[in-house]
Design goal:
- The chain is of the alpha+beta class.
- It is about 55% helix and about 10% strand.
- The chain has 9 helices and 4 strands.
- It has a 4-stranded mixed β-sheet.
- The longest helix is centred in the middle third of the chain and has 22 residues, at about 125-145.
- The protein is globular and about 45 Å long.
- The two termini are about 25 Å apart.
Length: about 200
């Protein structure tokens, strides 16, 4: 087994580090300082042709989607821990939440961050910022209503929490955290108190 992750703190590769620590899987983690310009340089484009993060290698097999990577790791090297199988009663819920962190919510959060923080002020479009906020809030309300009295999305911790909680982290660190509901805030505090998150988020170049 030769596993390697190119890790940029605070980016989506954080999901992968978190999962590695939760699952107790040994891998080489090469932590680099995030520099958007360097992601477009030839050296990095040889690793990830999209110029994005993360990029993960299992030998000569490359995977670049963070949610795909964490499920791959669990199923191939973690005995399926933190996942669900088709025989489980909450399998559909697991799949829904696992993919909700990107397919359902990621695009709106990306727009919110771009329009409120990343883009220079003279390039921001107020109507787009408002649209992104409304759509992100719609997703957050879904999380809030779905949590009920559960500690985690499925009741017990799973990869679905890694997928979704990372988006909550992005909302928080870009000073948009005021739109999280009470239960979602408590949920975020709960997941980020886990030892694996604490260790993963502390990694720096």
């Amino acid at each position: 087994m030769s596993l390697k992750l190119i890790h940029f703190p605070m980016t989506r590769s954080l999901r992968v580090v978190w999962a590695l620590y939760e699952l107790g899987i040994d891998a080489e983690i090469e932590t680099r300082a995030f520099d958007r310009a360097k992601l477009k340089e030839p050296e990095y484009l040889k690793l990830n042709p999209l110029g994005k993060t993360p990029v993960f290698f299992d030998g000569d097999k490359r995977i670049i989607e963070s949610v795909a990577i964490i499920e791959y790791l669990s199923n191939k090297y973690g005995d399926g821990r933190l996942t669900r199988s088709p025989q489980d009663a909450d399998y559909a819920d697991y799949l829904q939440w696992l993919h909700f962190g990107e397919a359902g919510m990621g695009g709106y959060v990306n727009q919110l961050i771009g329009q409120t923080m990343l883009l220079p002020e003279d390039q921001r479009i107020p109507a787009m910022a408002q649209w992104a906020k409304v759509e992100t809030l719609n997703c957050l309300n879904f999380i809030e209503d779905s949590l009920g009295d559960k500690d985690y999305l499925l009741g017990e911790f799973s990869l679905a929490d890694i997928s979704v909680a990372y988006l909550l982290f992005l909302i928080k660190v870009t000073r948009n955290g005021g739109i999280l509901g009470e239960k979602t805030n408590a949920y975020f505090k709960r997941v980020t108190a886990r030892d694996a998150w604490v260790r993963a988020s502390a990694l720096h170049p």
